Amino acid sequence: MAINAEVTRNEAENPVNLIRRFSKRVQGTGLIQGSRKRRYYTRVKSANVRRQQTLKVIKRREAVKELIKLGKMPEKPVRGRRR
Asked: What is the domain partition of the chain in residue ranges?
C-alpha cells in the first residue's frame, strides 16, 4: 500500500513553512506511526518451541555446573561491585 504525501508551494511561501506543511501531511497519513509499530515486532513463539528452548538452557547450565565441579572449567568471576 503506497500513500503519497504531496504538497505544492504556494506563492510567497518560504521553504521552512513548506517543509512544516509537508511533515504535517506525512504525520496525518500515519506512515511513520505504523512503521514504528512494526519496527520491533516479533512473532509469538509457540509453547512447544519455548519449552524446548527452556529445556536446552537447563541442560546447558547443568553441564556447566558439572564441568566446574570436576575442575575442567573455571568458576564465573563476580561481575560488578558488591554492596
From this structure: 8-41, 43-74
* Rounded Cα–Cα distance for residues 56 and 58 (Å): 5
CA 13/CA 8 separation, integer angstroms = 10
pLDDT in tens, 57-73: 999 999 999 999 999 99
Residues 27 and 10: beta-carbon distance below 8 Å:
no
Which grid cell is 3? 500513500
CA-based end-to-end distance of the chain: 56
C-alpha 20/C-alpha 42 separation (Å) is 34
